[in-house]
Amino acid sequence: MDTIFALATAQGRSGVAIVRISGPDAVLAAGTLCGDVPRYRGLRKLYDPAGELLDEALILRFEIGQSFTGEDVVELQLHGSPAVVNAVLRCLGDMPELRHADAGEFTRRALENGRLNLAEVEGLADLIDAETESQRKQAVRVFSGALGALAESWRTRLIRAAALLEATIDFADEEVPVDVSPEVKTLLSGVRSEMAREADGVRVAERVRDGFEVAIIGAPNVGKSTLLNRLAGRDVAITSEVAGTTRDVIEVRMDLDGLPVTLLDTAGVRDTDDIVEGLGVARAKERAGRADYRIHLFIDGSEVSDDLGPDDVLVQAKADIYGGDILAISGKTGEGIDHLIDHVSQRLQQKVGQIGIAMRERHRVAMLRAISYLDDAAGALESSGAMTDLVAEDLRSAIRAVDSIVGRVDVEHVLDEIFSSFCIGK
Are residues 201 and 311 in the same domain? Predict the structure, then answer.
């Protein structure tokens, strides 16, 4: 592979800036700048080709198999001056054996060299983008290999099931169980139930990654924009005594007890002859219908719709004027706001409790595909005239679906399992 380099820290002035070099000529390139490259780490002065001092840097060296990319890697920890960084990058760019890295190329090399699997790469991307504590925790689980370990567990059991069936087909005269179907059924049932549970949790995991949406809905002039401003801690929506002020959906992103939440202020729902307001009402209904949670503000109980769902909560507005019960708030004075926040947070935390490890639609699709093959295999095993070779093929297809979660496709392990489990080929 080419030897690549790039700034690994953010652009701009900083205390320390890190330039990473990876590839077969990484040590040679670093040596061109500092002369003697330390075995592990050390302070070195960096010089340009004309012999002019560029900076004094901490040099870190990682040997093949011990680095993030799996290649020879040298990191230059520079003083974070843009001028210093640009001078060092310019010197590296002038070296014929080096080229500037493409976006994500260091991580791609880690994948290609077996340092990360595809799920871990996705976890790393999510970890870099994490803004809240729940996002960080979820990303760390995947980046640390939890999803890969789960997929490997499924894979191991499915390979075992396939090996049992393959043995009955190809090695009937060897020392193999006479009836392997009970063990195969148990293996398939266990894997399928775990996959189904994980697949069901992906939708919520996606919301943790991308953010929950909470819509504030109600009649015009009920205090939706005032509540939004109070929750946001600033004036993000225009408030007025004139009904119908809000015409479009206003979004505010916030951290709610570690969960990413986007609050939606929607147009007041009412019948209107105003074309623009009517468009706003239609958009409010459509967007609120897609939200994860809806806060129905009301003053008079007759304003409340009778088609409330499990993710809807009724909140009495303008409690400073009209009073109210437990879930009564005043966006103007702040009365009841903390209680409302706690209530919404608890409801969202209940949703988060449903998530597993898988967190992307790609994972869910792969699991559903594997489940489909497992259902076909289980159905065939229940048939008295089941064709074992077809059941084994369904299991191989399920294994490939599982392998796609971590970006690996390998069926040779089926033979390995056969040889090791049944002493075949002795």
Answer: no
Q: Which tokens sit at 224?
A: 């939706």
Return d(Cα 280, Cα 285) in angstroms, integer: 9
Single-letter residue type at 257: D
- Look at residue 124 and tell me if it is in a domain: no
Q: Residues near 225 by Cβ (< 8 Å), separated by ≥ 6?
A: 237, 238, 239, 245, 246, 250, 265
Task: Provide the domain count of the chain.
Answer: 3
Shared-domain flag, residues 227 and 335: yes
Please give the Cα distance from 2 to 170 (Å, whole number). 46
Task: Give the position of tokens 């010089």.
Answer: 47
Res 231 pLDDT > 80: no
pLDDT band at residue 178, thresholds of 50, 70 and 90? low
Torsion of CA 309, 138, 349, 130, to 10 degrees: -90
Q: What are phi and psi of 42, to 5 degrees?
A: 175, 160
Nearest to 127 by CA among 115, 135, 119: 135
Question: CA 32, 37, 38: angle at the middle one, nearest 5?
Answer: 170
- Predicted model pTM: 0.71
The whole-angstrom separation of Cα 369 and Cα 199 is 11
The DSSP call for residue 246 is -
220 and 306 in a single domain? The answer is: yes
Contact 87, 46 (CB under 8 A): no
| 69 shares its domain with 189 | no
Same domain, yes or no, for 100 and 55? yes
Question: Are 266 and 290 contacting, i.e. CB atoms less than 8 angstroms apart?
Answer: no
DSSP string, 344-395: HHHHHHHHHTT--S--SHHHHHHHHHHHHHHHHHHHHHHSTT--HHHHHHHH
To 10 degrees, the CA torsion angle through 330, 336, 339, 340?
A: -20
Indicate the DSSP class of residue 312: E
In the chain, what percentage of residues exceed pLDDT 90?
A: 21
